[in-house]
Amino acid sequence: MLPLIWVAAGDSDFNNFYPMYKPSSLELLLYYELIYMLQFIAVEFFFRGFMLFRFQQMFSGYAVVMMIIPYSLLHVHKPFPEALASIVGGCVLGYLALQTRSIWPGVMVHCGVALSMDFFGLIRSGRMSSLLPW
Q1: Residues of 81-93 as b/e, b for ≥16 C-beta within 10 angstroms?
Q2: Is 118 exposed, middle or buried, given 0-12, 13-18 or 19+ CB atoms closer than 10 A?
Q3: Cβ-Cβ contacts under 8 Å for 22 (sequence gap 6 or more)
Q4: Nearest to residue 48, comparing CAs of 86, 84, 91?
């Protein structure tokens, strides 16, 4: 994912969106990122934990598809390539959760992608240099 995110970070729509919080200092950015990462635990718990595992009991082979429908709607307001990629990403994260019977690999992947999107966006737009103290 990192090469694709690096390329996407060069797009103006991407740079206008990420990071969603426009920090005025590196310290505030780090606080924001910590809270942002905690949010992904909740997202993964709900979609890949609660919803996916319940749907698997109820609908077996359709569980991932049924979980992806509401999950992808969370991404509608984001840049279009990301909204489309959320469908593929939801499949991968759903499959990963089913294989491991855990949300934690998905939390790590989701956090890694989100952090790289924010930092690559700041770097590629030139805004990172204004946050560094040196």
Answers
A1: ebeebbeebbeeb
A2: buried
A3: none
A4: 91
Rounded Cα distance between 63 and 60, Å, is 6
Interior angle at CA 79, CA 78 and CA 85, nearest 5: 90
- Nearest-CA neighbor of 104 among 50, 49, 63, 32? 49
Amino acid code (one letter) for 38: L
DSSP letter for each residue of 56-91: HHHHGGGHHHHHHHHHHHTTTTS-HHHHHHHHHHHH
Q: For 9-24, write each residue's pLDDT tens digit.
A: 999 899 889 999 998 9
* Closest to 44 (Cα-Cα) out of 74, 20, 81: 74
Query: How many CB atoms are located within 10 Å of the residue 110 CB?
Result: 21
Q: Which residues contact 30 (CB under 8 A, 6 or more apart)?
A: none
pTM above 0.85, yes or no: yes
What is the tens place of the pLDDT at every residue in 109-130? 999 999 999 999 999 999 999 9
C-alpha gyration radius of the chain: 16
